[in-house]
Structure formats: C-alpha cells, structure tokens
Amino acid sequence: MSKPRVAFFEFTSCEGCQLTVIDSLQTHIELLDVIEIVQFREAMSEKGEDYQIAFIEGSCSRPGDEPKLREIREQADLVIALGACAHLGGINTIRNWQDQEDVRRYVYGDKADWYETYPARPISAVIPVDAVIPGCPIDRHEFVTIVKQLLQGRMPRIPDYPLCIECKLKENVCVYLRGKVCLGPITRAGCDAICPTYGDGCEGCRGLISNPNIESLKTVLEEHGLSMEEVRAKMTMFLSYQMMELEREAAGNGD
Ligand code: SF4
Ligand code: SF4
Ligand code: SF4
C-alpha cells in the first residue's frame, strides 16, 4: 500500500512551526516509515505536487497568497493549519489595526511599491480547513498525535476547555496571585499550561475557547491594574483578527 503523501507550505510566518515539525520528526523518525513527504522547502529540495495531506503554516497577508491557497485546497484531501499564524492570523494581524499603506512604507521604505499587502487573515478565511494544530509554535507532541490520528483516518480533536483547567491540574500557583496577568480563562488548553508553569501569564497563542467570557476577563485585567490600552494590547497579540470579528459582529447587532 502506498504511503500518504504529505506536503508542507508556508505563507506569512517565521517558519518556527515548521522547525518544530523537523524537530518532532527527528525524535519520531518512525513517522517517516508511514508517510511520504513530497514537499517541505524548509527540509528538502524536492518539490512534488502530488500530495494528499497539506500542512499550511502562516497567515494570508497579500492578494497573491489566495490563488496558491486555493490550488493547495484543490489538490489536498486534507488541509491542516499549522500554528497560530495559519490558525488565527496570529501576530501578523497586529498590524491590521493600522493603516496598511503606512505599514507597507514602514517595512519596505522606498521599495514599498514593489510589494503587495493587505490585512493578515487566518487560512480559514480564504479556504476551508479540515483541522488545526494551534500554538506559537505548535506543540511537538500534539503534532505527532495529530499525524497519527490522521493516518488512522480519524479527524483530530483539540481541547475546547480553558487553559486554567490544565494549569490547575498541574497544581501551578495562579500568576494573578504573583501580580501578573494571564489569558488562561479564555484560551484553549493543550500546551500543558507551559507559560504559567514557568511563571508567565498566557498570551492566548492557542486561540479562544468556544464562548469565551471576554468582557469578564477584561474586567479582571483592569482590576489588576491594566489600563484599557494595555488590556487591548494583551488581547490582541495573537487574537487581533478574532477581536476585530467580534467587534464587527457587535456593531452589526447594534451593541
Ligand atoms: S505560529 Fe509562531 S512559531 Fe509558528 S510560524 Fe507563526 S510566529 Fe512562527
Ligand atoms: S495562571 Fe493563568 S491559566 Fe493558570 S489558573 Fe491562573 S489564570 Fe488560569
Ligand atoms: S500558555 Fe498560552 S501563550 Fe503559552 S503556549 Fe500555552 S496557549 Fe500559548
């Protein structure tokens, strides 16, 4: 039986999630016995276009990304968003709050006219995505688990409960009690609460749980001394696209 053919693609990203994949494959080399990687620019020169599973890293941040994304979608049976940039839009979406022309000139200076850009978006805003592997970067164990699930014909299921649950199971002292702040109550678990475990607040890189109580968390953040501006900065490091969508929805509902 032929092995499933897998390809990796990157759009606007730092390629850190692909590096994590390479790292995972080094410690789970057995995966290479059961899949055939036909395209992975970060790791090999070959560029096969016949693949069934596509992992996409990075957000869509320019019109020219869209035809390539549609081409991948047309070819692949399964499209998996790899990491926060692809899943959420991620840190690339911080610039969505600013004038895109200013951003372009700031980054590219007098060569700005050579480059196209528009507000960054998650991959799912352009093409249907079958599954996501959250995180910035992805969790290597979760990547391996999800590949195994895909090979078994099962659709991956990622946690949809708050990070606080994982954090409490680890018996961490809540960082709020140490004078720090944390987005754990609204953030999807699955990273083993790694930031609070090492004494830092969660920044929300795994995205929002279903029905997050954002307003309540904003109040908590303000009660812990953050100004409105700081609350906004905290909530929009990885989640600008989602926050803008929520604002648009609220405006549409006349709230
Ligand atoms: S999610 Fe983070 S680590 Fe992964 S590509 Fe984006 S910025 Fe890099
Ligand atoms: S440190 Fe963060 S994740 Fe942990 S319990 Fe406190 S708020 Fe929740
Ligand atoms: S604790 Fe929060 S910011 Fe840190 S890895 Fe987990 S989800 Fe991301």
Q: Would you kindly provide a written description of the structure presented here, covering whatever features stand out?
A:
By secondary structure, the protein is an alpha/beta fold. It has 2 domains: 5-151, Rossmann fold; 163-252, no CATH class. 37% of the residues lie in helices and 9% in strands. The protein has 11 helices and 5 strands, in the order βααββαβααβαααααα. It has a 5-stranded parallel sheet. It binds iron/sulfur cluster (3 copies). One iron/sulfur cluster binds at residues 13-17, 57, 83-85, 90-91, 136-137. The site of one iron/sulfur cluster has 12 residues, from helix 8.
Please give a handful of descriptors for the protein shown.
alpha/beta, Rossmann fold, 37% helix, binds iron/sulfur cluster
Assign the CATH superfamily of the largest domain: NADH:ubiquinone oxidoreductase-like, 20kDa subunit
Strand order of the largest sheet: 2-1-3-4-5
Largest sheet: 5 strands, parallel
| Text of the CATH class of the largest domain | Alpha Beta
Count of helical stretches: 11
Beta-strand share of residues: 5-15%
- The CATH architecture term of the largest domain is 3-Layer(aba) Sandwich
